[in-house]
Amino acid sequence: MIDDIARIGASAPARISAMASLDELRALEAELLGKTGELTALKKGLGTLDPEERKIAGQAMNEARSTLEALLADRRSVLENAQRAITLASERLDLTEITDELERGTVHLVTQTWDRLVDVFLGMGFTVAEGPEVETDWYNFEALNIPAAHPARGMWDTLYVDLGDPETVLMRTHTSPVQIRVMTDGEPPIYAIMPGRVYRRDTADASHMPVFHQIEGLVVDRNISFADLAGTLEAFTSAYFGGSIHSRLRPSYFPFTEPSAEYDINCVFCEGSGCRTCGQTGWLELGGCGMVHPTVLSNVGLDPEEWSGFAFGFGLDRLALMRHGVDDIREMYTGDVRFLEQFPS
Ligand code: DAH
């Protein structure tokens, strides 16, 4: 038996190193050490030996098994490394490959719209402010005259952040909290616009995205009237869309403005004569506006007897869709170059 064990041990290294693949190696392992393998077969014969011989043969068998196991493991790691090298080589990307024509990308339509809006308002004497996207309940609601139990909270489906007390930290649902920051950080006179990303608990469809963009406007000065609001929106409308597009205001409700209005523009497709896009009305809804509510002014320490102001806010993505006749807001966010390259910057 000792001879048989020695024979297996002596021939094994050459057999193992001859294995060229992991599959072959696995088969040889079964042949040598497996249940029906050569060593196991010999082990069954141990019982027929006398105790002294059995001890010696048993020891030799254990040593042979450990040696074989170590040899198999070494070969396995050699074969695995070789396999990995083959995979890496086959997945290699040639980053030096250049086509004859270099294609230039474009600035995203949302960014183009953002930049153009900022340009128009800078031209009208406004400054630009930005605020954080993660806000507290105070800035997003409370300071804007929307207390906790106010039914108007239903106007904004809010995504809360799991931080601090429940429902105290949130993803801002509109850019209006930046009004509060601008009024607390600075002093009137204020002529500011505040573009930014906003979040709502909404399912994406043709006209909604859970993440989208708004632009907010705020003016606070002495003797500001509703006529200043109407005039500013009209000036902006013709500067941005061209002289044939005008604006109108319709009474509405927002907790942070009084009186409040909704702001429409002439349909940019039919210029007001009525078409499918505007539902034959000649008008497209753009956003909300109004005179800053006295409570909001008091909340930031401004005396409503001394200061007055107006504010407005509208959806930037919506504006881009209107301007370019795109009928599904989701197109803006799929990142499909065939869509994006239609709007060269
Ligand atoms: N924050 C409002 C919204 O997201 C829009 C809005 C309405 C902004 C009236 C204003 C405003 O500044 O005066 O629905």
Structure description:
The chain is an alpha+beta fold and 345 residues long. The protein folds into 2 domains: 2-91; 109-340, Bira Bifunctional Protein, Domain 2 (BirA Bifunctional Protein, domain 2). 41% of the residues lie in helices and 19% in strands. The protein is built from 11 helices and 9 strands. The protein has helices at residues 2-17, 22-33, 38-44, 51-91, 109-123, 137-140, 176-185, 226-241, 294-299, 316-324, 337-340, and strands spanning 127-128, 134-136, 169-171, 190-199, 211-221, 247-254, 257-266, 283-292, 308-315. The strands form 2 sheets. The protein has a 7-stranded mixed sheet, sandwiched between helices. Strand 6 (247-254) and strand 7 (257-266) form a beta hairpin. Helix 5 packs across helix 10 (316-324). It starts with a helix and ends in a 5-residue tail after the last helix.
Rg to the nearest angstrom?
Answer: 37 Å
Structural class: alpha+beta
Which class of the largest domain in CATH terms? Alpha Beta
- Quick one: how many beta strands? 9
Mean pLDDT: 92
Shape: elongated
The CATH topology of the largest domain comes to BirA Bifunctional Protein, domain 2
- In the sheet with the most strands, the strands line up as 1-4-5-9-8-7-6
Bound molecules: 3,4-dihydroxyphenylalanine
Main beta-sheet strand count, sense and barrel state: 7 strands, mixed
The CATH superfamily of the largest domain is known as Bira Bifunctional Protein, Domain 2
Q: Using the 3D structure, state the CATH architecture of the largest domain.
A: 2-Layer Sandwich
Element-level helix/strand string: HHHHHEEHEHEEHEEEHEHH
